[in-house]
């Protein structure tokens, strides 16, 4: 996540998502060049991610756009995890949950490349995939 730069800065908000798997693996989205990883949010032992939502800022025309700013997820036991993203935008709906016994096992993201002097947004969308 890139911290807010102030009135004259070009903010991007969320620049990447990383899933840390309980079997010591990880899956990382495409990453924008800005910001830093926040501390990991984890489900309780024996649980897995089953649903998520994004906080997204709608396009603002001539003003600085950030697109996705934060991500939240639900664990199979009902715990809600919320990343340390930016405050801009509104939370979208929760995704359909994974089927019973399944959990999130992969991801795909939409990332805007740097605009070279234009308005950068970073991460624009996320798809999470379920596996049994």
What would you say this structure looks like, in words?
This protein has one domain: Vitelline Membrane Outer Layer Protein I, subunit A. Helix content is 0%, strand content 34%. It has strands at 18-20, 26-28, 49-56, 68-75, 80-82, 90-91, 103-111, 123-131. The strands form three sheets. Strands 5-4-3-6 form a four-stranded antiparallel β-sheet, with no helix packed on it. The radius of gyration is 15 Å and the shape is elongated. The model has no long low-confidence stretch (mean pLDDT 84). One of its GO terms (cellular component) is extracellular space. It holds the Pfam family VOMI. InterPro entries: VOMI, VOMI_sf.
List keywords for this structure.
single chain; 132 residues; mainly beta; Vitelline Membrane Outer Layer Protein I, subunit A; 4-stranded antiparallel beta sheet; two-stranded antiparallel ribbon; 8 strands
Give the arrangement of secondary structure elements.
Blueprint (H helix, E strand, L loop, with lengths): L17 E3 L5 E3 L20 E8 L11 E8 L4 E3 L7 E2 L11 E9 L11 E9 L1
Antiparallel strand pairs: 1-2, 3-4, 3-6, 4-5, 7-8
Protein name: VMO1 protein
GO cellular component, one term: extracellular space
InterPro entries: VOMI, VOMI_sf
Number of domains: 1
Q: Would you report the number of β strands?
A: 8
CATH architecture: Aligned Prism
- Reported by name, the CATH topology is Vitelline Membrane Outer Layer Protein I, subunit A
Largest sheet: 4 strands, antiparallel
Distance between the termini: 30 Å
CATH class: Mainly Beta
**CATH homologous superfamily label:** Vitelline membrane outer layer protein I (VOMI)
Structural class label:
mainly beta
> How much strand content do the residues show?
25-35%
Roughly what percent helix?
under 10%
The count of helical stretches stands at 0
Q: Note the overall shape.
A: elongated
List the strand order in the largest sheet: 5-4-3-6
Order of helices and strands: EEEEEEEE
């Amino acid at each position: 996540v890139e911290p807010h730069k102030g009135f004259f800065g070009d903010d991007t908000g969320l620049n990447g998502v990383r899933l840390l798997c309980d079997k010591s693996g990880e899956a990382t989205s495409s990453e924008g060049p800005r910001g830093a990883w926040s501390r990991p949010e984890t489900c309780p032992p024996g649980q897995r991610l089953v649903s998520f939502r994004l906080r997204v800022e709608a396009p603002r025309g001539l003003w600085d756009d950030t697109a996705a700013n934060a991500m939240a997820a639900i664990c199979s036991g009902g715990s809600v995890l919320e990343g340390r993203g930016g405050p801009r935008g509104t939370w979208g709906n929760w995704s359909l949950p994974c089927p019973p016994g399944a959990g999130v096992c992969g991801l795909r993201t939409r990332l805007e490349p740097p605009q070279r002097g234009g308005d950068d947004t970073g991460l624009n969308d996320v798809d999470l995939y379920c596996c049994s």
